[in-house]
Design brief:
With about 325 residues, the chain is of the alpha/beta class. The chain has helices at about 15-20, 25-30, 75-85, 95-100, 110-120, 160-175, 185-190, 255-265, 275-285, 290-295, 300-310, and strands at about 5-10, 35-40, 60-70, 70-75, 85-95, 140-145, 155. The strands form two sheets. Strands 2-1-3-5-7 form a five-stranded parallel β-sheet, sandwiched between helices.
Length: about 325
């Protein structure tokens, strides 16, 4: 039985969806196990009928819901809440969904300041009224996804690395809780460190560091120790590296490897008679992992009851 997936984008730029497609062969392998029932980037599915026959958002039920982008207006909020009701597991994909991202910079200003700036005081445009028709009303600010609905898996990145997405999907299909890097780039960087005591001043990175490309990175001195600004200390690790210590890094387990192992399990033992065409078809169909229900929380009815009990208020008003 395939896993059904619903995907949505809210206050985002489609970079996360491009990263999903950039999984390449892993994404093709993914399509043999996952069945996308809703994804605006790939499926032309209308929210409303052209003549107004249908009012409100309706999404198909799905095992897994993937949402990119934060929540900025009432339409975003309605979509997110409907996705939470219809999906057993919600993955917040990308920094806009997990933290608000670049769009959250507008939170420094009020909506009145925003509209006054862009509709009445810009030099290049004629003054106009604040949009009130067709455009969904704005919320008071940009919200991260978990401030409005419950999120099960956070996958940050602008955009997330394709290997990170592959690692999360692989873990979920194996019935496991996804584990991604939690330390900084400096904790995983192979560059040589001698201590910053000799650094007298920092300089802008206007020229590349002198390093012989044919030599390993372990022979390159740390950028900070060379007096070059580096964002490694405040940047999340996971530059498509393999296992380092106890942290699982993307690339360690691939969807193709998962498919290969399942195909080996489905092969008939030596000496068994060849199965019929119908039986062969069943052998080729990827099966749901036995451990999957533990991750997806049992029945959909139980999940909906739990969401209703929480009142979808776990993340509301978390930030001032």
């Amino acid at each position: 039985m395939r896993l059904t997936v619903a995907a949505e984008w809210l206050n985002s730029c489609a970079g996360c969806e491009m990263s999903l497609l950039n999984m390449g062969e892993d994404f093709i392998a993914c399509l043999r196990i996952l069945s996308f029932v809703h994804m605006p980037m790939l499926i032309d599915r209308k929210y409303f009928e052209p003549m107004g026959e249908k009012i409100g958002f309706e999404f198909p039920e799905a095992d897994l819901g993937i949402i990119s982008g934060g929540i900025r207006n009432e339409e975003h909020l309605a979509i997110a809440e409907e996705m939470r009701r219809k999906c057993r597991v919600i993955v917040a994909m990308g920094t806009c969904a997990t933290h608000g991202g670049i769009p959250a910079l507008i939170n420094m200003f009020s909506n009145d300041e925003l509209f006054r700036r862009y509709y009445r005081t810009t030099v290049a445009t004629d003054a106009a009224d604040t949009p009130a028709v067709v455009v969904p009303p704005l919320l008071d600010r940009t919200y991260a996804l978990d401030e409005k609905i419950r999120v099960d898996v956070h996958l940050p990145g602008c955009p997330p690395h394709p290997d990170h997405i592959s690692a999360v999907l692989t873990a979920l299909m194996n019935g496991e809780q996804p584990r991604l890097p939690t330390k900084s780039v400096c904790d995983t960087c192979p560059a040589r460190r001698e201590g910053k005591g000799a650094v007298q001043k920092m300089r802008r990175y206007t020229r590349n560091l002198r390093h012989q490309a044919d030599k390993p990175l372990t022979e390159m001195k740390c950028l900070l120790e060379n007096g070059l600004l580096c964002m490694g200390p405040v940047t999340r690790a996971g530059c498509a590296r393999k296992r380092r210590g106890s942290t699982v890094y993307p690339g360690e387990s691939s969807l193709q490897g998962l498919l290969w192992s399942r195909s080996k399990e489905r092969q008939p033992a030596a000496g068994h008679a060849e199965c019929s065409g119908e039986q062969r078809h069943r052998h080729q169909e990827p099966a749901r992992s036995p451990g999957l229900p533990a991750v997806f929380g049992g029945t959909r009815e139980a999940e909906q009851a739990r969401v209703e009990d929480e009142g979808q208020a776990a993340g509301r008003n978390r930030r001032p």
